[in-house]
Write a structure and sequence with these properties.
- With about 250 residues, the protein is of the alpha/beta class.
- It has one domain: 3-Layer(aba) Sandwich (Rossmann fold).
- Helices cover about 40% and strands about 15% of the residues.
- Strand 4, helix 5 and strand 5 form a beta-alpha-beta unit.
- Helix 1 crosses helix 9.
- The radius of gyration is 17 Å and the shape is globular.
- The chain starts with 7 loop residues before the first strand and ends in a 7-residue tail after the last strand.
Amino acid sequence: MSIQGNKLALVTGAAQGIGFTISERLVDVGYSVAMLDINPSVMESAKLLASKGADAKGYVLDLSNLNSIRSLQALIGVSFKDLSVLVNNAGISPKHQGKKRQFIDIPLDEWQRVIDINLTANFLITQICLSPMMNNQHGRVINITSQAARTRTPIPGAHYAASKAGIAGYTRILAGEVAQYGITVNCIAPGRIESKMTAEVGDSVNAELAKSIPIGRLGKPQDVAAVVEFLVSDSASYLTGVTIDVNGGNFMA
């Protein structure tokens, strides 16, 4: 992967949906993008962008495997030193016959898997990525949380909400610690966005949910990607430690 200056961006959960669209937007504004996902289709997704002239490459990364995460820098290679942007997008929200489990019914192994993938892996990857950013005295860390981290929502389980709230919590602390290195750390909290994950509950449920959104529709991955584009720009250099809601007005802080 060729790098032009400190312009490498890493995006997790990039094989499809929001992560793919964020990757596409980042290459459009001049970044080389390393697309990470447990799904091997991330390789084809990267090739699709590359076929359009983008500097994108896909890597298979299992966020539930500590050794896999620790090999991240070796996986990306020497260009890792030019890392400028990290977008922590990957996450899971288990459903059973299209519905969440009630809090009292969540087994410990399911709780732990959600926390491991959504929160702990996010923490570990961010730790790894901070070193090159600190060396370069510049960086943008963007964590994709959720409306579920901000208020009660009926679809995701308690483990998903807890993991996303945890990300928002550490974001505020980290933002204060690394601001002196020219690094900003912010969250984007999407509401109901069209994706494979949200499709699991069925069209009828999503249609009903859309009626409760002031703007009158589900969000699109492009709505999230546009905020990522802003946060990595120089225009957002004075913005850190905040959560930006992208939910069509469904939750107003």
